Amino acid sequence: MGPTAELLAARSPWPPKAELQADGLPTGGLLHSPHHGDPWRDPGLLGVPDPTLTLASTAPLSFRAFIAEAYPRYGFHRWALVLIALLQAIADGQLSRLIVTCPPRLGKSLLVSKLFPAYFIYRHPHLFAAIASYSGELAYAHSREARHFYRVTGNQLSKDSAAVGNWLTTQRGGCIAAGVDGPFTGKGYSLGVIDDPYKGPADAGSARVRSRIEDWLKAVWFTRAEPQFTDAGDGALQHNLSAQVIVLTRWDHEDVIGWLLAQETGDAPQDWHILNLPAIAEHPADRLSFPASCTLEPDWRAPGEALCPERFPLSELLKIRSRVGSFWWNALYQQRPSPATGSIFQRAWIRPPFPREHQRRYAPLVLSCDLSFKGEEQNDHCGFVLMGLLLPDALQPTVLAQAAGPLAPQLELEVIWAARHHFDLPQTIRFLLSTLAALDAQGLRPQAVLIEDAANGPAVQQSLKRKVPGLLPIPARGSKESRAHAVSPLLEAGQVRFHHRAAPLVEELPRFPKGTKDLVDAFGHGALWLETRYWRGLGIKRDPLPMLLTR
């Protein structure tokens, strides 16, 4: 018999002991007893509280229970349970600094940027949470969902402020949201969540963008956080609830995570706890190392095990690795934003032409040009690359009908010739015309001449548009590096081969992005153009590469 039952038995001369339940409480209760008016028979009905019910009604929900109530269909996968436990520690004031790195499309934003801010405010309705992302629109979307989860669990908002980007509780806490580099002045927070501060690889790879975000973090974001410690009045420091959670998929080794970890070697380390989640578990000897001031959440998996087999089984991950190439696989999926070799193109990927028993024609054949000219040695070269798509041997209607299936033709590109020169405008035009004439004499007349629509390209196009059939301007989207990353999986998969007359390009590829870049850029434009034309021309519906640069 527990202390509550003992108290009840002492205060009431009846019922007999045999009439008590197993937990020591009376069996009848006020409504079932002939002796009306005894409050001890039915605790709570007449205003006498039941201590066990009172305790259950005041205890806050755990984060996992909150998720189950707010989002009943949430899948509590193993990786999510690990992260939920860490976020629970933050809400309980036991952890204040957390970095989470994980592959795209895992569901990190739902958990960290939508459900957790709602739970944190539910636990601390007098405090503020702040959400930042690469754009104000995305941050507001996270805040809108957090507001929904807060309300759907029975919590009330203040009637005078329920805006998406700045909503308040009845206790005057709430949530604020803005894009990275956006306005947080005049606002403070106890929980700061940064989710994907970069829009994509171009931003993460841009030193200018990275520097701007770092300045914003130092001058705005961290200055709006509540202090971790305050003076209790007697000289002792009192711990405040002040937490930072940063979650992202790695794009670049000098991104926000790289910058924060570099700060750990300074005079004011933040002692980050790190949850690093590679898509495929690595051997302990191969795992990343972190500064001594940081702590690392152990990986519970055996080497080679998939992170979330319910969504991305190992067989699917291996297909993704083959399609995206080692550079993006290491960065996006393994959270290693630079390959072991430190270059985009590995020398082992450069292979001789495809073996063939008979003559195969190129369809189409293109000459891709990267032009920059002033005729001075200190200026960039003009790069010229001749390459073609090898027409499949069995290009029959039955093959085309099965092009979307497992018998789809294999993409095969060959680089036949490459050259770079310092030219001015007249020299460039003369060289192009003479080269096209020489190729025509050899039966290698290109069906398209691709000229980047930037720098000096438009001037050449204007001069040659009536003289060169098939002259096509190619828009320069992104940087040279981003185009190289887009085409590198083709080399790694063995779908691009090189003739001996392409030696200048072969020499330039392994050194890229150092040294000269003109041939690599011309090659990238040509390979991507051929690839797109190939898949469209054969009616193949399946994309040759996944959407690499999405989340």
Number of helices: 16
- How many strands appear in the DSSP assignment? 17
Residue ranges: pLDDT <50 for 5 or more in a row? 1-46, 396-407, 540-551
> What is the CA–CA distance across the termini?
58 Å
What order do the strands of the largest sheet run in, or round the barrel if closed? 3-4-5-2-6-9-1-10-11
- Proportion in β-strands: 15-25%
Helix-and-strand structural type: alpha/beta
Instruction: State the share of residues found in helices, binned by percent.
Output: 25-40%
**Number of discrete domains:** 3
Q: What is the CATH topology assignment of the largest domain?
A: Rossmann fold
> According to CATH, what is the class of the largest domain?
Alpha Beta
What do you see in this structure?
The protein has 551 residues and is α/β, with parallel strands linked by helices. The chain folds into three domains: 3-58, no CATH class; 63-333, P-loop containing nucleotide triphosphate hydrolases (Rossmann fold, 3-Layer(aba) Sandwich), CATH 3.40.50; 348-537, Nucleotidyltransferase, domain 5, CATH 3.30.420.280. Helices cover 34% and strands 16% of the residues. It is built from 16 helices and 17 strands. It has helices at residues 3-11, 51-58, 63-70, 78-91, 108-123, 136-152, 201-204, 207-221, 256-263, 314-333, 397-401, 425-441, 457-464, 480-492, 503-508, 518-537; strands at 97-101, 128-133, 157-163, 166-169, 174-179, 191-195, 229-231, 237-239, 243-248, 273-276, 295-296, 362-370, 382-390, 413-421, 448-452, 471-474, 496-498. Strands 3-4-5-2-6-9-1-10-11 form a nine-stranded mixed β-sheet, with helices on one face. α4 packs parallel to α5, α5 (108-123) crosses α6 (136-152) and α10 (314-333) packs antiparallel against α14. The protein is elongated. 33% of the residues are buried.
